[in-house]
Amino acid sequence: MEFAFNIGNIFHWNDRNLNKFPTDFIQYKYQIYQLYMKNNNIEEIPKWINCMDKLTHLYLDNNNLSVFPDELCQLINLEVLFAPKNIFKSITPMLSKLIRLTQLNLSYNEIKIIPREIFNMSSLWLLDLSHNMIERLPEIFYPDELYYGEIILNNNNLKCVPDNLTRLKNIEYISLHHNKLLYLPALVFRKEAKINVDHNPYLSYMIMNTQANCCGFLKHPLTEILPNIMLTCKSHDIVISPKIKQVLHVEGDAYCPTLKEFALRMVYVWKVSFQKNDIPISLNRQITSGPAALCMQCSRPLFNYFYICLSNDGSKIHLEALFFCSKVCHKIYTQLFEINNGISFRELKYCIK
Prior knowledge:
four-stranded mixed β-sheet
């Protein structure tokens, strides 16, 4: 077998009808930096893959792979791992040991669950798990420490996404189209980010900075028994995040937030340090999981006291959900909306089911 290396020791071995890794790779283990093995019939990654410790890029697209051996996770210099169009049904948490991995593409597989260790890898810039069978995402524990720029999750079976997805400081693009989303986080994504939630038939409203076409034209068959808050507006059933415990309408009497609400906001904003046993468990859970919403005007974190407004511009089927910490912020937002857009802010009546 003849090996021809390009500049930078990039080795191409695509479209060769291979059913296994050639063992000749071993003698070139210190020379291979990028390895392309696309469009073959490989069923197994050999355990001796760990001897190729110079490897930075590995492309395994369109093979018959179903598992990553633990030895692969010893390639500490690996930066790019692409293995779309295989038959993976799960992802080993051991991949999180690849501390320099910036791009992971496992699209077009049969994956149902994402390990929390993978979703919380601090090195990842790109995560592509589109065209799988994923129904839920793990929580993001420390969003400020994550590097994510793009997360591609379209064409799965997702019903919701974690709230902390909105707190990713570098995020530029999130693809959630063609899922089964019931609701979105009541939080504002960074304005530079593009959020695509097109073609979610059960998503009956949108939030700021999202692209939502062809949504809300079906009613989820299990909506009535889901642990969410249900609103009815113009004959539409609207599912709101279950984190929202109390919803007040701007046309009602204005009540002051409780001391509990003020305390939660203060601790969260100022990052007050405390021990887990210093406060009740319920409060600790609320603070660590983050706010249920952000005020659309002042971005104040909201935990269990805020106003929700529903509106549309008359030309869209879906509604827009807006959250405010007070009537003052609601009034400012309304005035600015009318000035910037030249049209009146049209608020819709709704009731809680």
